[in-house]
Backbone:
């Protein structure tokens, strides 16, 4: 099976919070390009961290908490135009 090229294009970072000195969590609008096909704009919360050698890496997607949902509701007019 041929390996697919996967690329993440960040449309906009809506909110970023520190994650206990290990990086940050971002609420953002992204477009995933998988094997040349665009998934369309998606709203996600993603963990980002820095490796020991200073490279930035993307961690796992995370669920929304109460603060995230409140932010989404408060900013829905802007968010929906990006989706």
Residues:
């Amino acid at each position: 099976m041929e390996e697919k090229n996967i690329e993440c294009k960040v449309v906009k970072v809506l909110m970023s919070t520190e994650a206990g000195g290990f990086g940050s969590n971002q609420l953002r609008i992204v477009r995933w390009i998988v094997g040349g096909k665009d998934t369309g704009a998606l709203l996600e919360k993603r963990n980002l961290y820095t490796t020991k050698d200073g490279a930035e890496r993307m961690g796992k997607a995370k669920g929304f908490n109460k603060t995230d949902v409140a932010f989404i509701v408060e900013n829905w007019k802007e968010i929906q135009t990006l989706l």
Summary: The longest strand covers residues 37-50.
